[in-house]
Amino acid sequence: xxxxxxxxxxxxxxxxxxxxxxxxxxxxxxxxxxxxxxxxxxxxxxxxxxxxxxxxxxxxxxxxxxxxxxxxxxxxxxxxxxxxxxxxxxxxxxxxxxxxxxxxxxxxxxxxxxxxxxxxxxxxxxxxxxxxxxxxxxxxxxxxxxxxxxxxxxxxxxxxx
Length: 161
Ligand code: IDP
Ligand code: MG
What we know:
The chain is α+β, with helices and mostly antiparallel strands. It has helices at 2-11, 21-25, 29-39, 53-59, 69-76, 91-99, 112-116, 131-141, 155-158; strands at residues 14-19, 42-49, 81-87, 125-127. The two termini are 13 Å apart.
């Protein structure tokens, strides 16, 4: 019935999370992965790469006119990034809350940015900001065959399906 259908489609929601170059440098990859695992989300894609400028310019297309844009691209290509796709109920909005405010000075303690960063130009992590944005970013960073469909044996305990 309709409620089950809505629940199932919500469980398949996906978002793009990236550990930015400062997060990799500071050995925060494992910690960030752990937060999403512990919350109950399912990892369906993960890779480490030096972000190509072409991909970064598409990823941050909306910000291309901002004064900080050149520094943003420089920052994002200053070292490898770890790009992930996480799946689960309400993952887009919940992961934004877990990541915290764009400006780490405003991000609450307990959020990733609130706990691990000081300045907006080095804010450790990226999370898609909407369902449409997530779809666009996942297609930008991943090939279809790099995303894993797998069944978790504890799905009924953690992801409310
Ligand atoms: P978000 O990452 O929280 O979605 P956006 O407004 O989409 O925030 O900005 C993308 C990224 O651009 C931020 O995470 C941050 O790295 C960088 N950025 C945003 N605003 C500023 C700024 O005022 N100065 C420097 N960098 C900024
Ligand atoms: Mg954004």
